[in-house]
Write a structure and sequence with these properties.
Elements (H helix, E strand, L loop, with lengths): L4 H25 L11 E3 L2 E3 L1 H31 L3 H5 L5 H7 L7 H7 L7 H5 L9 H15 L16 H7 L3 H4 L2 H5 L1 H5 L6 H4 L16 H4 L5
Antiparallel strand pairs: 1-2
Length: 228
């Protein structure tokens, strides 16, 4: 049986939640003041007084199991941001994801994907300074995007409020023979390093244009098809 980490996270997350609910119900029905004369409770390797056992169960129900559920949920979230399917789970990101998989597209993202220049987790590799893996500002930006998406306080086409960090490109391309062979890379090195000039100035659009991502445009229905 082939079980991946996502299935394990789902299993343990559900286990923590169900056990927490059951133990909370038991704790709510426990009359702690009447446990003094109750017989000891067996916990496999030891026996505890009934009152101590009830307090231990309450601690597990109110502290340990909720913490376990929160940990597994956050772990799944942290891992999920690495995957392209994680980006595709938001409707407003479908144009970028569908274009990425389009072999006829000439955008930078699509060219990287179809030529297998990035083997997996393509979105994450180019946006690794964003969201959960970035700095505090990037994390706050990620949470702001999440809040606006879940509350439907965004408009299409969405637009980035931050300037793309060239370092995400340079992490892979800098010092490679093909990169070093281009004289303009050396001429503009300081401006590229400081983001005064962005790679897209010479290498074209990374994703579909804002016009293509505007509802009602000729390309909108194709770009927003459900991701499979």
């Amino acid at each position: 049986m082939n079980v991946n980490y996502v299935q394990l996270v789902y299993f343990f997350g559900m286990l923590f939640c169900v056990m927490g609910i059951l133990l909370c119900i038991r704790t709510a029905r426990t009359r702690f003041g009447k446990l003094g004369d109750a017989p000891p409770v067996s916990f496999w390797i030891t026996r505890l007084p009934a009152e101590s056992a009830a307090k231990l169960i309450a601690f597990a129900a109110l502290i340990v199991l909720p913490a376990g559920a929160i940990f597994t949920a956050n772990y799944h979230t942290f891992e999920g941001v690495h995957e392209v399917s994680g980006c595709a789970s938001c409707h407003v990101m479908l144009p970028m994801v569908n274009d990425l998989h389009d072999p006829n597209s000439g955008t930078l993202a699509a060219r990287h994907y179809k030529n297998k220049w990035i083997a997996e987790n393509q979105c994450y590799h180019c946006h690794s300074d964003y969201g959960f893996s970035g700095n505090v500002e990037a994390k706050l930006t990620g949470y702001r995007h999440l809040a606006r998406y879940t509350t439907h306080t965004y408009t299409e086409p969405i637009a980035a409020r931050v300037r793309f960090n060239n370092q995400n490109c340079l992490n892979c391309h800098h010092h490679t023979p093909k990169f070093e062979a281009v004289q303009s890379h050396h001429t503009a090195a300081d401006r590229l390093a400081s983001n005064q000039m962005i790679c897209l100035n010479c290498h074209g659009q990374a994703h579909p244009t804002s016009l293509e991502r505007t509802p009602g445009s000729a390309a909108y229905s194709r770009l927003t098809e459900a991701f499979r």
